[in-house]
Structure formats: structure tokens, C-alpha cells
Amino acid sequence: MHAIWMRPLLARLAPIFVVLAVLSCSVTSPFNERAYDIATTAKVDALAVVTSATEPYATHASEVHALKLEIDKAYEFAKGRPHNEEATQQWAIIRDPQRNSLGGLLRRWQERGTLDGAFVAEAQALIADGFDTVIELESGKRRPSEQ
Fold first, then answer.
1. Among 15, 12, 13, 31, CA closest to 23
2. Do the domain assignments include residue 26?
């Protein structure tokens, strides 16, 4: 008798479970080759500029300005893609001058003029990790052909 009572209940609850399962799946944008290229290029460019942080900031101010512009463009590109919140948040962290990432290092370099080599080496590892997060987020997305 117990099994007979459960079948109608399960039949009525099944559509609810299906809807909840579909809604619980996070919706992300599909893989975008351009976003991947932007992230990998920006990583290489950023690490190249950061290497110079042991030298006077004024000597590299134009490179820093160009790098900030590149990062701002990457952030705006990520922000403009639908269902791309995680990558957009990571770009925001990378560019934020108050965080321990690229933006913070560039601000500190500008304020102090030069930075210690050991500090720069440690910062490079953190900055690389931040870019790797964006790259992994993008490369982990489904290709349009896989959907």
C-alpha cells in the first residue's frame, strides 16, 4: 500500500525536480576565441611590464598606461558578454588598484618609483594566477559546436 501511495506523489513532484535541476545549472557564455586570445595576450604583456618594476616608474609610464588601457578593454569586453559574470569579476580584481593583483602593483610602483626585486617576483606569481583564472574560465567553457 505504501508503494502505491508514493507513485502518484512522485509523478506530481517529478516536473518540479526537473525545473529545479534546470534552474540550478549555471548559465555561462560559450567559449569565445577572442576572449581567450585577449586574456593570454594580456597576461604576457602584463608580466613583461611588471618585470620592469625594479626600474624607475617614469621610464616605463607609457608602457604602464598602454597596459592599463589593454586591461580596461579586456574588462569591458568580458563585461559586455552575456552570462560572463565570473570572468568579469576576475578582470575587475586584476585591474583594481586596491587589490593585490596587477592594478595594485602598478599603483604601488607609481607611488614608490621602484619596487624590490623579491616583491616583484612574488607579485608576478599572484598576477599570473589571476590571469590563469580568466584563461581557465574561458578555456573551460563549451565550444559552440558542443552545445
1. 15
2. no
